[in-house]
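[Q] Does anyone have a clean structure-token version of this?
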Amino acid sequence: MVVKANPTLFNWLRSEIKIGVICIVLFSFMVSYASAQNFTVRVTINNTDNRVFIPGVGERDSRDLGDITLYNPPHFYLASYLNNVLTGLVAAKGEYIRAYNSTANHTLEITQGIQRSRIFLVFSEGDYRNIDKNIGLIEQEDFLSQISPSFAYGLGVLSPIKVVLEYPDIDLVGGFSLRRGDYKLLINYQGVSGNKPVVGIRIV
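[A] Here you go.
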């Protein structure tokens, strides 16, 4: 028995193999592209009266921070405080931190790789010591496993927090409001649009 090859079927299979290879290459590129991205969290405090603590540098008046300054600290946190009110950013690890001021505000930033990124926004009582006493647990990733993980007691409803996520080099897709509680966020890469990577964010 002679079996004749079907050229139409052969060309279709060849096309599918090519498409499959292209998809694998694109997927690999997207994973590499995403893994090369950094993630920055920035908090701006609307005064220049606070004291700011920078690990490895020490305390400074927020009005004296000057232009954007990049630090490679021994621990990845920044603390701003006045009258027993503490605002800070804390991470187990990172790429760098930055602190700077303008005429009316001062800003704290932590930048880390986007994969497995986790940055705590601290808003509570105390000063930098409230963060410093917990930094070992945070760096060991044991902080959230404690019975009641906290930097201090809450400040109540008189001091609301508004978190705005803004990243000029990434197109962020998604919006939601969060009430008090624990949440899981899904952040996923959705391709490129207008020369910007598109990143979706939603509650899961």
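[Q] Thanks! Anything notable?
[A] Residues 36-159 form one domain.
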